[in-house]
Amino acid sequence: MLVSSGLVSSGLVSFVLGQVGRASSDVPLLTAAVVLPAVGAIATALVSRRRPESARMVATLFSVATGVVTVAVLVAFETGEADFQLVEKYTWIRDLDVAWHLGVDGISLFLVVMTGVLFPIAMFGGAPHHDAKSFYAWLLLLEAGCIGVFLALDLFLFFVMFEIVLVPMYFLISGWGYANRRYAAMKFFLYTMLGSAFMLVGLVATAVLHARGSGGDLTFNVLTIANDQGSIAPMTARWLFLSFAIAFAVKVPLFPVHTWLPDAHTEAPTAGSVILAGVMLKLGTYGFLRYGLFLFPEASAWFAPAMVTLGVIGIIYGAVVATMQRDLKRLVAYSSIAHLGFIALGTFAITTQGLQGSVIQMVNHGLSTGGLFLLVGMIYERRHTREIAQLKGLQASAPIMAGVFTLVMLSSIGLPGLNGFVGEFLILLGSFLTRRWWAVVAATGVILAALYLLWAYQRVFHGEPDEDNAGFAEMSFREGMVMAPLVALIVFLGVYPKPVLDRIEPSVAALVAHVEDGSDFVEPSVAEAGTDAREETFAEAEAAEEGSGGEGGEDGEGGEGG
Amino acid sequence: MTLGLLAQAGDGVAPIDTPGVAWSALSPILVLIGGAIVLLVVGALAPRRSRIGWHAMLTVAVAGGTIAAVVPLWDRVHDDGPYSAVASAVGVDGFSLFVTVVIAVAVAIAALLTDGYLRREGLEGPEPYVLMLLSAAGAVMMASANDLIVMFLGLEIMSIAVYVLAGLHLRRRRSGEAAVKYFVLGSFSSAFFLYGVALVYGATGSTNLVRIARFLAANTLADQGLLIAGFALLLVGFGFKVAAVPFHSWTPDVYQGSPSPIVAFMASGVKAGGFAGLLRVFVATFGTYRLDWQPVVYGIAVLSLVVGAVLAVVQTDVKRMLAYSSINHAGFILIGVQAATDEGVTAALFYLAAYTFMVAGAFGVVTVVGRRGDGHHHLDDYQGLARRQPLLALVFAIFLLAQAGVPLTSGFLAKFYVVEAAIEARSFWLALVAMVSAVVSAFLYLRIVLVMYAGAGDGADTDPAAGRPRLAVPAAAAIALVVAVAATIGIGLVPDPLTRTARDATPELVAASD
Question: Where does the pLDDT of residue A516 fall: very low under 50, low under 70, confident under 90, or very high at 90 and above?
Answer without folding.
Answer: confident
